[in-house]
Amino acid sequence: MTTANVAFLVDPLKGFAKNNISTREGGCLPVPGGEEIGEPIARLIEHVERSDKPWFVVLAQDWHPKGHISFASSHKNLATNLDVYSTIYLHENGAHNRPIAAVQSGITFDIEADHRGHITRVRYDRPHVAIPSDAVQQILWPDHCIQGTRSAQVLEPIREVLPPTLTAQLEYPPYNSRNILRATGRQGHPYAVIRKGYDPLHDSYSLVKDNGGITETPARAYFEEMGKAMQVKGINKVNAHFGGLATDFCVDWSYEDTRAILPGILKKYGVEEVSFYFLPEISRGISPENSQAVIARMATEGVEQRTIEDIIRGSISKRPLITHPTIAPSA
Predict the structure, then answer these.
(1) Which residues of the chain have pLDDT under 70?
(2) For position 214, which CATH number holds?
(3) Contacts of residue 210, Cβ cutoff 8 Å, sequence gap at least 6
(4) Rounded distance, CA 99 to CA 320, Å?
């Protein structure tokens, strides 16, 4: 069988690393140990750039506008009293995704919001008990990865080894404002940056679609492009490698949604088998417990763990499920 490898690198961005990025520079949502994944990802990309075997590199990039509905700062006023890591519920209403409820001290209250989806009032006089079954739970995060800011840039070790034609599109200013960026490496391997979270009223942990499944990113269309390119090369087996930030949010959601659609898309172009791998070296989680649960669930779905060295050596040996060696304890 002719095999291709795909590296899915989820949000290896400065806004998720431990640093001092200010709100003016796009904000920061630090994942414990997030800054540590830059070097191993750079080693992987250096290997791709030397390899004469088929490779595809897909980098997911959080790309939020200012005032995004997922930012706690978007809902700050004297009437709300909502803080970072509070929880709200969102519900699609016509063409708009609107906040309908907020959780305070374990009690869910009705809320009021303006046309931008920003909460203007928590109705503490009206405890809300009827949440629609299709409502989306949303954590309110610190500002992070705002379009065109330092926070949305890739980690420096990665930036240094990406194809120059891709780096040029990511540089600020000017930056390319499209929601998908493409480039080709020295050996002709395709690179793509798929942006997510750019809709001001929908958050998107996944590189494929928003959290409520209402809108999609360019991922599905790009997977079709990948399939056509693989068909030309006669590829009939794919190893899909996942890692990034954070294991228990964007990596997990991206893996699940990709697993749901990628094999079916590639099958149309002659790919008979797609195997999924998790790369703990380049992954960190917000919650150690939740990240371990994600990894354990992946194992039940047949996902194996690989190291960067495994990939460089071309090893496909199975590795037993191990505890996540790269999750730092919560601060």
Answers:
(1) 78-79, 94-95, 172-173, 315-331
(2) 3.40.50.850
(3) 196, 199, 202, 203, 204, 216
(4) 43
